[in-house]
Amino acid sequence: MPVLPRGHRATVVPNWVCEVLSPSTAGTDREIKMPIYAHFGVAYAWLLDPLAYTLEAYALDGGAWREIGRFAGAAEVSVAPFEAVTINLDERSTQI
Predict the structure, then answer these.
(1) CB atoms < 10 A from the CB of 15, how many?
(2) pLDDT reported for residue 92
(3) What does the pLDDT look like over 19-58, one tens digit per residue?
């Protein structure tokens, strides 16, 4: 496996990030990571809570987060930047 050089950093800012919330990390994700993502210009951020079956979607607008959608349960979700894809948040309704 290749080894990254010391001091190597990614310099490309992603267009979208998704944080999967847990009881132990939700505060860090909201209060620490979201402002960092805004500072560096990430265009979209999702906060996904698999225990509550919720998705909060945000778009960066003038350096601040603007909520573009809050979804719960069995909602069929199509939200930026993936409007072409439909997601069902309720795993209980997923058929295999």
Answers:
(1) 11
(2) 60
(3) 999 999 999 999 999 999 999 999 999 999 988 989 999 9
Classify 68 in phi/psi space as left (phi over 0), alpha (psi -120 to 50) or beta.
alpha
What pLDDT is stored for residue 94 in this prediction? 47
Q: Number of folded domains in the chain?
A: 1
- The whole-angstrom separation of Cα 48 and Cα 16 is 13
Mean pLDDT computed over 74-83: 87
In this structure, is residue 6 part of a structural domain? Answer: no
* Residue 5, in any domain of the structure: no
What is the extent of the structural domain holding 83?
Answer: 16-93
* Dihedral pair phi/psi, residue 18, rounded to 5°: -130, 120
Is 26 part of any domain?
yes
Q: What is the CATH number of the domain that holds 86?
A: 3.90.1570.10
DSSP E strand stretches across 1-96:
16-20, 44-49, 54-61, 64-72, 76-77, 87-88
Question: Would you say residue 39 lies in a domain?
Answer: yes
